[in-house]
TrEMBL record:
<dbReference type="InterPro" id="IPR016162">
    <property type="entry name" value="Ald_DH_N"/>
</dbReference>
<dbReference type="Pfam" id="PF00171">
    <property type="entry name" value="Aldedh"/>
</dbReference>
<feature type="domain" description="Aldehyde dehydrogenase">
    <location>
        <begin position="1"/>
        <end position="412"/>
    </location>
</feature>
<feature type="active site">
    <location>
        <position position="192"/>
    </location>
</feature>
<dbReference type="InterPro" id="IPR016161">
    <property type="entry name" value="Ald_DH/histidinol_DH"/>
</dbReference>
<dbReference type="GO" id="GO:0004777">
    <property type="term" value="F:succinate-semialdehyde dehydrogenase (NAD+) activity"/>
</dbReference>
<dbReference type="InterPro" id="IPR016163">
    <property type="entry name" value="Ald_DH_C"/>
</dbReference>
<dbReference type="InterPro" id="IPR016160">
    <property type="entry name" value="Ald_DH_CS_CYS"/>
</dbReference>
<dbReference type="InterPro" id="IPR050740">
    <property type="entry name" value="Aldehyde_DH_Superfamily"/>
</dbReference>
<dbReference type="InterPro" id="IPR015590">
    <property type="entry name" value="Aldehyde_DH_dom"/>
</dbReference>
<keyword id="KW-0560">Oxidoreductase</keyword>
<comment type="similarity">
    <text>Belongs to the aldehyde dehydrogenase family.</text>
</comment>
<protein>
    <submittedName>
        <fullName>NAD-dependent succinate-semialdehyde dehydrogenase</fullName>
    </submittedName>
</protein>
<dbReference type="GO" id="GO:0009450">
    <property type="term" value="P:gamma-aminobutyric acid catabolic process"/>
</dbReference>
<dbReference type="InterPro" id="IPR029510">
    <property type="entry name" value="Ald_DH_CS_GLU"/>
</dbReference>
Length: 420
């Protein structure tokens, strides 16, 4: 029945859901921090960000357009958009609210139902969101939350012929597995996968802007995001000044319990995450890298943020996504070398660069082989713009005007006009 519900009514419910999220922002943020450790202020920011997708797609529900063609006097062709039908989403722990609303917002706006399998590490955030959806007036059964382990639930979603589309945010390895599992039922797929994002700072960059942008990109959620800068390439002429300024900013970050006032870096999600960060830092130091400023320290799952200088391409941190609060600085001399090193990865989600040269801005922006590029900014995710990557970073786009198209099918009606 939902697909036949007027778009204005779908928009009203999404708008009401947005309002309830904003009204209960403190509660949602506290649940999130208790589940995965994100500092409370940052968690509140995610609530606002997550709610913005509901507001955006509420408006998009009423802007779905078809097309009428007249190839001949006696012929009309109507191109119509219809909801895909039953959809499913598998979402991660690092943004447990936003990754749900970014998927179910457009699905519901388009007239689809959705089954969501949230991360087993953050089920309560998803369930709280569903409670608010019910209060907003979403019909029972339109949005279903299935908690548990992915290995048990995933095959049920991928193998079901009832589910016509799957949206997934997570690792490239799991994304490839889901593609294979969906092949037998020919499902539509949206995949937002691994990152390994480069960040380039040219000699002509505004140092203040570059440092602020790098901090915003790298250390949000303790570096546990798919769009975090994982590799920083800094031109020789500005390298030492940038390293010193960045190290000073990193030294001032407060690490601790996400519920404590003033904390900016919370714990990593689990012991495996801590072990990976530790291995990357130790490997880099053993191969000649050095720590700039704040020393590297681990206390349980709390990892002090660190800046590494004199990093080279043979180190693990150069080719593996760290997913933690560690930023390696690579030195370069020419624009061509920086772009080549930045592109030397099978991934292509996010990238960043800082320059005040307009010609260079156009050249580098075009040359970077990534789905999203930040120029003089470290923040690139918003409900109003498409989000997604190329190469092994995924398929499809979420957000923006195109986000709702992922949940729509085209139907073409050919009409013969008698007596025309």
């Amino acid at each position: 029945q939902w697909r036949r519900t007027p778009a204005a009514q779908r928009a009203e419910i999404l708008t009401a859901w947005h309002g309830l999220m904003m009204r209960h922002a403190d509660d949602l943020a506290r649940i999130m921090t208790l589940e995965q450790g994100k500092p409370l202020a940052e968690a509140k920011g995610e609530v606002v960000y997550a709610a913005s997708f509901l507001k955006w797609f509420a408006a998009e529900a009423e802007r779905m357009e078809g097309e009428t063609l007249a190839p001949a006097a006696d012929r009309r062709i109507l191109v119509m958009k219809e909801p895909v039908g039953v959809t499913a989403a598998i979402t991660p722990w690092n943004f447990p609210l936003a990754m749900i609303t970014r998927k179910c917002g457009p699905a519901i706006a388009a007239g689809c139902s959705m089954v969501i399998k949230p991360s087993e590490l953050t089920p309560y955030s998803a369930l709280a969101l569903a409670v608010l959806a019910e209060r907003a007036g979403l019909p029972p059964g339109l949005l279903s939350i299935v908690t548990g382990h992915a290995r048990e639930i995933g095959p049920e979603l991928t193998g079901s012929p009832i589910v016509r589309k799957l949206s997934f945010t997570g690792s490239t390895a799991v994304g490839a597995l889901l593609m294979r599992q969906c092949a037998d039922t020919i499902k539509r797929l949206s995949l937002e996968l691994g990152g390994n994002a480069p960040l380039i700072v040219f000699d002509d960059a505004d140092l203040d802007v570059a440092v602020a942008g790098t901090m915003a990109s790298k250390f949000r959620n303790a570096g546990q995001t798919c769009v975090c800068a994982n590799r920083a390439y800094v031109q020789d002429g500005i390298y030492d000044a940038f390293a010193a300024r960045l190290a000073a900013e990193v030294a001032a970050l407060t690490v601790g319990d996400g519920l404590a006032p003033g904390v900016q870096i919370g714990p990593l999600i689990n012991d495996a995450a801590v072990a990976k960060v530790k291995a990357h830092v130790e490997d880099a130091l053993a191969k000649g890298a050095r720590i700039v400023g704040r020393p590297f320290a681990i206390d349980g799952r709390f990892v002090d943020p660190v800046v590494l200088a004199d990093v080279t391409a043979d180190m693990r941190i150069a080719c593996e996504e760290t997913f933690g609060p560690v930023l390696p600085l690579f030195r370069f001399t020419s624009e061509e070398a920086a772009v080549a090193q930045a592109n030397a990865t099978p991934f292509g989600l996010a990238s960043y660069f800082f320059t005040r040269d307009l010609d260079r801005a156009w050249r580098v922006g075009a040359a970077l082989d990534f789905g999203m590029v930040g120029l003089n900014t470290g923040t690139i995710s918003t409900a109003t713009a498409p989000f997604g990557g190329v190469k092994q970073s995924g398929l499809g786009r979420e957000g923006g005007r195109v986000g709702i198209e992922e949940f729509l099918e085209l139907k073409t009606l050919h009409v013969a006009l008698a007596g025309a």
